[in-house]
Amino acid sequence: MSTVFRGLLQKVGSGAHTNKILSRSEAATALDLMLTQQATPAQIGAFLIAHRIRRPTAEELAGMLDVYQCYGPQLTPIAAAYPTLVMGVPYDGRSRTLPLAPLTALVLAAAGCPVIHHGAGVMPTKYGIPLVQMWEHLDVNWRSLSLGAVQEVFARTNLGFIYVPRLFPLVTTLFPYREQIGKRPPLATLELMWCPYAGESILAMGYVHPPTEGLIRGALALHQVPRYLLVKGLEGSPDLPRDRTAIIGTQQPGQDYDRLFLSVQDYELSKTNAPLDATANLGLELVSVLEGNDTELARSVIWNSGFYLWQGGVCGDMATGMALAKELLVSNKALDQLIAVQAAIQRVSGSLG
């Protein structure tokens, strides 16, 4: 048992009127002791559920993010015309709407805008479809790649994926606790903010509950992150919804935090999200979009990609971004990007074998 951790647990786990907020360094110490298993399972479980009930602070999340940045892998900068978009997508996946991130990433990469995803496999509490599985429906397997191999693919194709169980196994020691306590711990918010890239980037994160927006903003301010996007997106992801007005917070260097409100009706789209149909052949559905076919999923991808092409600096406004996204799909340039990623992974896998 860690007596140091016991003291931190006592601060977090006391009653409503007696609990104490951890300092940034104390929160970092708590996470470090949990990741390195110096805290016992009983201590870890108690801390995670107590921290969820009490709710974290921005300073505590900033301290925990310090630990992720200390231990976590990072891709090194590549030459690119635009900042790299790092997408913080909930690790427990999607269960109702189809994830747009892989198709969006292919569209952006085809336009010269690099994209990095990160995540794990199927996880509690939602047990939804994770990004790594979505990529596998496109015949792209990131799970076995070393960090060096991912770096090479990223440099060649503008696309990278940090598969956490392979490249950041230390954090996976805490994954089973999510199932055991039956709730997302505050670590789930931490994962959204993590940036496994050492170059100029734009963090794009999703959220559901309004208080989460404030927590993330506060933590990133303490980390002096100059540029990011916060999207009240589909199932907590940074995918823009179509069935309601998309609410997006934008932080630009040297500017005040601002909000955008985007409605599909202003861009002649229907208010229909692409559903996640378990009976469909998902791979064919995804490839159909890349072949330029006009489907509801394709319209969602154009809506989502247009926004990120605009915010990434490729286009000057949303309408121009959507037009470019459609062109990249219809011309099969996004499909060519997928083929390039498949070939790059085959090349690095062959050299490793």
TrEMBL record:
SUPFAM superfamilies: Nucleoside phosphorylase/phosphoribosyltransferase catalytic domain, Nucleoside phosphorylase/phosphoribosyltransferase N-terminal domain. GO terms for molecular function: anthranilate phosphoribosyltransferase activity. GO terms for cellular component: cytosol. This is Glycosyl transferase family 3 N-terminal domain-containing protein. One of its GO terms (biological process) is L-tryptophan biosynthetic process. Keywords: Glycosyltransferase, Transferase. InterPro entries: Anthranilate_Pribosyl_Tfrase, Glycosyl_Trfase_fam3_N_dom, Glycosyl_Trfase_fam3_N_dom_sf, Nuc_phospho_transferase. Coiled coil: none annotated. Residues 8-68 form the Glycosyl transferase family 3 N-terminal domain. It comes from Prochlorothrix hollandica PCC 9006 = CALU 1027.
